[in-house]
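Handout, section 3.2

Students often ask what a structure token actually looks like in practice. Rather than define it abstractly, here is a full record for D-alanine--D-alanine ligase. The first block is the sequence as you would receive it.
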Amino acid sequence: MNVNHTIDPRALGKVAVLMGGHSAEREVSLMSGAGVLQALQSQGVDAHAFDPAQRPLADLQREGFDRAFITLHGRFGEDGTVQGALELMGIPYTGPGVLASSVSMDKVMTKRIWQAEGLPTPQWRQVASVQETEAALAALGAPMIVKPAREGSTIGLSKVTEPAQCAEAYALAARHDPEVLCEQFIQGDEVTCPVLGSGAQAQALPVIRIVAPGGNYDYEHKYFSDETRYIVPCDLPAGEEAAIQALVLKAYRTLGCRGWARADVMIDAATRQPYLLEINTSPGMTGHSLVPMSARAVGMSYEALCLHVLAAAALDNPLPTKGRL
């Protein structure tokens, strides 16, 4: 990974660190935003906290912000909505653009695209009732994962092993999203791989292997527990890490991502086949987060990572100033 050490913090202008927001991941977003804000300010960036749940987005334009670092997670921050508003205001922002963010947030649409491109992802069914969930279990086999199609951080997720559990699992997922996804469970190593950059210049960072207590990498074990082990270098068999990095890069480019993202992958224990689960277009930046951990493995500090991501802020469709809202 080539790290640009010549970024001039003053040239980045007045920066809004978007944090908090309205999603179910608000608490995590506030933690991510606080870390990024402190890091940018420590490097001399004119950075300011901005919570869209407490202030209108129009204040960004009215107060003369030059770019935005998005640390919002989930809906209304990672799904293309904020990205669209920033496009209209002409404020460059971090991470993928409107379409890539919207598609990546929707796990069903992501799977359809990956499958169309021949990329491996677990078998799945989209369901709209308990009966359809039970039918999905019969088709996919047990165990099966039931989750909202448009949430993150394992919110609303259940692991089902028998038909009697389908009603509760469906109800939990449907509370968060009317679109519910049933997914084949892949038994094996859980890994994640961040990507930085755009197009042909995009590069995959080191793969991290995740070992959670009892194999349960849930919300608590992601953000608050010290029991989860993160192994980097990942200590996978020879050639597997490079193959996963290549797969993740293809998945990233296929969805049209730019700036940065992080893909989650399961490796089948029996076949060693990697399967793409999902891609996160506004990765966490908390003390337990994975992109900073992977970046450190190639000598990139948290502060350098924040500067690198911010310097790559862009617009999908730059327009003349007079064309903006």
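Discussion prompt for tutorial groups: The CA atoms of residues 80 and 98 lie 4 Å apart. How would you have guessed this from the sequence alone?
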